[in-house]
Write a sequence for this structure.
């Protein structure tokens, strides 16, 4: 009977309540209130008129305390306009009475504040509200003039002046926004990409070991974690697309078939979704013999993205208390950034490689291939117009035509190789089978397949390199071995994989430079993914080329193997 998983969840509480006050916005209003208060006292010499400033501060409160509210914020700005314009008439009358500023020009002490609500509405792109505020201001100024008997010409001149300035603020704010907006930081994407890639190359060369290999970084992380949290099994998983995870590295006496789907009921899916460590009293593998188990799943988070997971398991109960979880997260935190850099570098390299392969395929198809076809047509025309008795010339033309046909066939197969990729849904074995079947048919080879492929996937970059190695081995067998049969074996049990290509040809006696160059390329590709290339004779005849990644599992495979001959 399975035991329900006990999990540790630290999900942060959602923020609630009113929008947070912006210090800059509050400070701007406070400065403007202080300014109009000082001007009011200077113009009137009366502390009683400062009551308008206090009322204005109360009216301004909703505008920044509830600035995101659909009703309170606009009402607050209307209140600011009404109080400002009413205060203008009162201050103008008080200034006239005190003989400090006459003819109604005392309104100049308060009306500068009118710019605050109008500018706020304009910056929020509420032009209709700005127009409404201007209308409210005009009506209130007129009412205030009659209320406080401030009908002097200067009062209305000041009011019109600030209404015009308010209109400028309302209708020119969008233009000001565009002028003040910083320029597009990436006006030339290719120039920016060149700069970033140059920086990445410099950083990569300065890293320990000058490498950005996700597999190597993952293995180093597991070695670090072995010190703080010993266990029987551990793995580092990363996203691969299609809602599945790939195993970058793992340790343990036995190979584990980890749960790699994110829609399953598991600590792996919970850790990925919550970005918080998860502990459980059950295994995170698809199949487990049972018994006491403790598992810990720690997400690898870079910024706001989950880029991978670390799984630790041991055959003891209660092995991961909070102190161990904290020690593990202290190690995985810095490692997340390193792994993200490696994965991004892999993506950039894969994109650049695929784009270059597609470009070469287009160039060959539209260039050399078309020209060779025209050469073939020319030879055919020459054969058709030969005079009678020119048998020797006709034979040479037939030989030349056959050679041109052979070269065109080789080019077409090269185009097929350049455009071959591992499909996200098909898998590595399917891509290798398609290539071997196509080349076997063109060369009259009987191709025999043996596949043992896990439902888990290798990283995309690793699958691509394994496909290229298999293609090179199959091409060499077709071109140089003179074989009748080809055996292709593909075993994938992430992070372990083995691709083997055998033929019954003349053996590895070929010393052609292009053959040696192909072997060098295969060895370089294997080294890039930290694999091993093995070339051995096949008895009684032929050659076997194999690439091995990781160490083989120490248990019988739980998956069915497929073994079928092709071409019989």
């Amino acid at each position: 009977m399975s035991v329900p998983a006990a999990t540790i969840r630290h999900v942060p509480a959602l923020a609630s309540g009113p929008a947070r006050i912006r210090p800059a916005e509050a400070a701007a209003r406070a400065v403007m209130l202080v300014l109009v208060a000082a001007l009011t006292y200077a113009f009137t010499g009366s502390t009683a008129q400062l009551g308008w400033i206090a009322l204005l501060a109360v009216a301004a409160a909703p505008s920044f305390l509830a600035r995101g509210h659909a009703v309170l914020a606009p009402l607050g700005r209307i209140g600011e306009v009404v109080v400002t314009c009413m205060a203008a008439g009162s201050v103008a009358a008080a200034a006239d009475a005190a003989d400090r500023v006459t003819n109604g020009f005392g309104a100049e002490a308060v009306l500068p504040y009118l710019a605050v609500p109008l500018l706020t509405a304009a910056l929020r792109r509420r032009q209709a509200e700005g127009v409404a505020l201007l209308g409210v201001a005009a009506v209130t100024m007129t009412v205030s003039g009659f209320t406080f008997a401030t009908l002097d010409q200067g009062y209305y001149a000041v009011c019109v002046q600030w209404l015009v300035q308010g209109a400028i603020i309302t209708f020119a704010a969008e233009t000001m926004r565009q002028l003040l907006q910083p320029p597009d930081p990436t006006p030339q994407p290719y120039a920016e990409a060149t700069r970033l890639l140059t920086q990445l190359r410099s950083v990569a060369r300065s890293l320990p070991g000058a490498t950005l290999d996700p597999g190597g970084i993952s293995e180093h992380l597991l070695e670090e974690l072995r010190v703080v949290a010993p266990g029987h099994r551990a793995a580092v998983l990363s996203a691969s697309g299609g809602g599945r995870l790939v195993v970058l590295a793992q340790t343990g006496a036995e190979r584990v078939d980890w749960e790699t789907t994110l829609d399953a009921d598991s600590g792996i899916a919970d850790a990925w979704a919550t970005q918080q460590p998860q502990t459980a009293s059950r295994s995170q593998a698809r199949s487990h013999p049972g018994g006491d188990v403790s598992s810990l799943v720690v997400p690898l988070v870079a910024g706001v993205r989950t880029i991978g997971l670390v799984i630790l398991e041991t055959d003891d109960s209660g092995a991961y208390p909070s102190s161990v979880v904290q020690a593990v997260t202290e190690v995985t935190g810095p490692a997340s950034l390193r792994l993200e850099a490696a994965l991004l570098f892999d993506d950039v390299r894969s994109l650049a490689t695929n784009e270059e392969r597609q470009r070469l395929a287009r160039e060959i198809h539209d260039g050399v291939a078309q020209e060779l076809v025209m050469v073939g047509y020319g030879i055919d025309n020459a054969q058709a117009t030969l005079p009678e008795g020119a048998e020797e010339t006709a034979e040479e033309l037939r030989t030349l035509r056959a050679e041109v046909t052979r070269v065109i066939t080789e080019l077409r197969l090269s185009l097929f190789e350049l455009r071959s990729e591992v499909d996200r849904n098909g898998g590595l074995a399917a891509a290798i089978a398609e290539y071997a079947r196509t080349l076997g048919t063109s060369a009259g080879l009987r191709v025999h397949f043996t596949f043992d492929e896990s439902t888990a996937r290798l990283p995309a970059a690793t699958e691509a390199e394994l496909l290229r190695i298999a293609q090179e081995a199959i091409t060499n067998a077709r071109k140089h071995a003179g074989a009748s049969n080809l055996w292709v074996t593909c075993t994938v049990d992430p992070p372990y994989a083995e691709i083997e290509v055998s033929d019954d040809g003349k053996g590895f006696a070929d010393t052609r430079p292009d053959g040696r160059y192909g072997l060098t390329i295969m060895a370089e590709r294997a080294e890039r993914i930290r694999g091993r290339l093995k070339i051995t004779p096949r008895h009684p005849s032929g050659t076997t080329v194999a690439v091995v990644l990781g160490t083989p599992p120490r248990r019988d495979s739980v998956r069915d193997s497929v073994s079928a001959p092709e071409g019989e």
